[in-house]
């Protein structure tokens, strides 16, 4: 979540921001004992000692709003008044972040508890009110112009912490409205967020999940159980799971289609109001990401589909199937009965991350024991996994459902990669500590790759090597190809609305089905995709985050570069990696990444990742004595 003045109004999105999944999200069957896995819950008293204390702070912050509004017109008087005004707003923002984090985390513990949802709505409302009270900031800074802003920065050392924000505001001058218009846009923020909030509640709490009997045991096939059972080794069970689960979303295709279309139209409205050519341009402009990054990713992912299809054919052979279907995409290629308690998973993560150095692993080990993460599965808990690092004065918080398999350990390593990024970035002042999503997924996916490399290196037997390789390849498939496919769908959906086309659930399913079949080689007989599964778009919460998912694919490409060098003991690569982490949001993220040695607007990083996948396929084929054609 952004901490700068640019996105004060966007604090309200904290409660509805999509939870970040791993390539294969971890989940836990209801029968799994949390005690047996020693899973943990977070300690939110480090934020507020009680809900009463939280409420007192909310009222105190609400009382500060008129003071923020009163600053309008003062920023341009001198360098000193500019610093004083920005410092005052930033101090408010810092407290508001902490307030919003607590409300969001409590709401996500159990989406079915209305009192927690109500508190979250109060935080959202306050954030929107703060956005309205400071909506004039952009316009007032833009009026100063680049020359005056740079002169003020040079004259007042205290403005150094605000320099990135000020320069970004000036850069975006052409898309900054008048003070009154900015106020109107800020007022529109809350209603524009409603589609995401409605979807979140419908999908997580209100959909009527069916019951399913598997080997004599009847379960409620909700999202958690779907994730657990879609990997069942019995192909008949997998097919039964898919044919039972997806009709629920299909039955709500029209409703969820209307919800998502409302979101798309809201985004298009904002893009038009701010004079952007389209929604993609607006989404990338915030962090100054070249559009060539997005389009190069899609281009290179499509060009690499032969490697993906080669791997999918090998999967089919290994599973002993005549024809693979979409329901076969999550079953493990190799079995491992090994289970890890959460402490064991943490120890494994620490061992795998030794190449990052003792400072990193010592800090991480200490953090494991300090109540930062909610890992216990429970009904009503928000699905997926995420790290929320917006409470600058406390520490990051993490959410996942830990189930003890290696995929769950990988998710743990991923989310703690985010947390450690935040720890290092917090060496920056508050105003520059928060990093963009574009860089956020690099250290987390680097952790996943280092864990995968460690597991392969530690494998002693042929079966262990096959298992480790299959885990690596699944990670690459899910994080690069699947997210690139999501990126294509999202772009197509936004472009359809931008062109004024009629968009509904049926059309969205048609777009998604075409992409699903193309990526999985349906026409070539690689994987058969039933038409029902075109509704999968309705299951993905990230689409409400506007051009968010593509960054998983760009990030794993950058992470592959870093993991390879760091794993080999290249101290220069490791130094550039930590320089990137410590930079936080002190510069544009594309520039930070490029300066670290990875230009994601060029094909090479993606081709390097594809070579990594191709090498993995070759290794797996060699172990099996088989080659997919």
Describe the protein in words.
The longest helix has 37 residues, at 462-498. The chain has helices spanning 34-37, 51-70, 79-109, 114-133, 136-155, 163-171, 179-206, 223-229, 235-251, 253-273, 279-285, 291-303, 305-319, 342-352, 358-368, 406-425, 430-433, 437-458, 462-498, 505-519, 550-567, 571-583, 589-595, 604-624; strands spanning 211-214, 217-220, 324-325, 373-374, 386-388, 397-399, 527-528. It is globular, with a radius of gyration of 24 Å. The protein is built from 24 helices and seven strands. A hairpin with an 8-residue loop joins strand 5 and strand 6 (397-399). A three-stranded mixed beta sheet has the order 4-6-5, with helices on both faces. A two-stranded antiparallel sheet has the order 1-2. It is mainly alpha-helical and 629 residues long. Helix 7 runs antiparallel to helix 10 (253-273). Mean pLDDT is 91; it is low at 1-37. The chain starts with 33 loop residues before the first helix and ends in a 5-residue tail after the last helix.
Give the helix/strand layout.
Elements: H1 34-37, H2 51-70, H3 79-109, H4 114-133, H5 136-155, H6 163-171, H7 179-206, E1 211-214, E2 217-220, H8 223-229, H9 235-251, H10 253-273, H11 279-285, H12 291-303, H13 305-319, E3 324-325, H14 342-352, H15 358-368, E4 373-374, E5 386-388, E6 397-399, H16 406-425, H17 430-433, H18 437-458, H19 462-498, H20 505-519, E7 527-528, H21 550-567, H22 571-583, H23 589-595, H24 604-624
Parallel strand pairs: 3-7, 4-6
Antiparallel strand pairs: 1-2, 5-6
Helix pairs in contact: 2-3, 2-4, 3-4, 4-7, 5-6, 5-7, 7-10, 10-19, 10-20, 12-19, 13-24, 14-15, 14-16, 14-18, 16-18, 16-22, 18-19, 18-21, 19-20, 19-21, 19-24, 21-24
Protein name: Oligopeptidase F
Cofactor: Zn(2+)
Pfam families: Peptidase_M3, Peptidase_M3_N
């Amino acid at each position: 979540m952004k901490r700068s003045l640019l996105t004060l109004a966007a604090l309200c999105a904290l409660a509805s921001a999509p939870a970040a999944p791993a390539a294969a999200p971890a989940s836990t069957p209801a029968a799994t004992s949390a005690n047996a896995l020693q899973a943990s819950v977070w300690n939110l008293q480090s934020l507020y000692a009680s809900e009463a204390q939280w409420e007192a702070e909310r009222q105190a912050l609400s009382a500060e709003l008129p003071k923020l509004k009163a600053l309008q017109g003062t920023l341009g008087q001198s360098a000193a008044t500019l610093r004083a005004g920005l410092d005052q707003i930033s101090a408010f923002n810092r407290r508001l972040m902490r307030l919003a984090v607590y409300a969001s985390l409590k709401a996500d513990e159990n989406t079915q508890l209305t009192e927690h949802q109500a508190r979250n709505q109060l935080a959202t409302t306050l954030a929107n009110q703060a956005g309205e009270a400071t909506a004039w900031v952009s316009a007032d800074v833009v009026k100063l112009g680049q020359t005056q802003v740079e002169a003020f920065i040079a004259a007042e050392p205290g403005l150094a912490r605000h320099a990135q924000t000020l320069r970004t505001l000036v850069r975006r001058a052409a898309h900054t409205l008048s003070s009154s218009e900015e106020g109107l846009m800020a007022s529109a923020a809350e209603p524009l967020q409603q589609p995401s909030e409605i979807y979140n509640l419908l999908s997580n709490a209100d959909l009527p999940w069916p019951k399913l009997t598997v080997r004599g045991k009847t379960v409620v096939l909700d999202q958690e159980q779907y994730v657990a059972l879609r990997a069942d080794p019995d192909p008949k069970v997998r097919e039964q799971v898919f044919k039972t689960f997806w009709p629920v979303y299909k039955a709500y295709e029209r409703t969820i289609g209307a919800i998502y279309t409302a979101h798309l139209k809201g985004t298009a409205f904002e893009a038009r109001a701010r004079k952007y050519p389209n929604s993609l341009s607006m989404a990338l402009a915030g962090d100054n990401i070249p559009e060539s990054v997005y389009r190069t990713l899609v281009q290179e992912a499509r060009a690499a589909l032969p490697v993906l299809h080669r791997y999918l054919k090998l999967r089919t052979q290994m599973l002993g199937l005549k024809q693979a279907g979409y329901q076969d995409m999550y079953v493990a290629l190799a079995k491992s009965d090994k289970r890890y308690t959460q402490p064991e998973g943490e120890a494994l993560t620490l061992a795998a991350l030794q190449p990052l150095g003792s400072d990193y692993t010592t800090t991480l080990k200490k953090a494991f024991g300090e109540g930062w993460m909610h890992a216990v599965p429970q009904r009503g808990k928000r699905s997926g996994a995420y790290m929320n690092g917006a409470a600058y004065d406390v520490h990051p918080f993490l959410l996942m459902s830990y189930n003890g398999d290696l995929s769950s350990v990988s998710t743990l390593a991923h989310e703690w990669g985010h947390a450690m990024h935040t720890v290092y970035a917090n060496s920056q002042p508050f105003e520059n500590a928060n990093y963009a999503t574009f860089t956020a997924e690099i250290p987390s996916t680097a952790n996943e790759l280092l864990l995968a490399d460690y597991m392969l290196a530690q494998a002693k037997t042929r079966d262990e090597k096959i298992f480790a390789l299959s885990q690596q390849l699944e990670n690459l498939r899910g994080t690069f190809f699947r997210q690139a496919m999501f990126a294509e769908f999202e772009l197509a959906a936004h472009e359809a609305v931008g062109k004024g086309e009629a968009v509904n659930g049926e059309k969205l399913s048609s777009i998604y089905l075409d992409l699903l079949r193309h990526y999985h080689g349906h026409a070539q007989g690689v994987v058969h995709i039933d038409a029902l599964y075109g509704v999968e778009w309705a299951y993905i919460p990230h689409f409400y985050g506007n051009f968010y998912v593509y960054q998983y694919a760009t990030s794993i490409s950058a992470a592959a570069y870093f993991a390879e060098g760091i794993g080999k003991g290249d101290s220069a690569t490791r130094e550039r990696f930590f320089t990137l982490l410590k930079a936080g949001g002190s510069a544009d993220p594309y520039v930070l990444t490029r300066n670290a040695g990875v230009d994601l607007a060029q094909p090479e990083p993606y081709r390097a990742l594809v070579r990594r996948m191709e090498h993995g396929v070759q290794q797996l084929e060699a172990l099996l004595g088989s080659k997919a054609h």
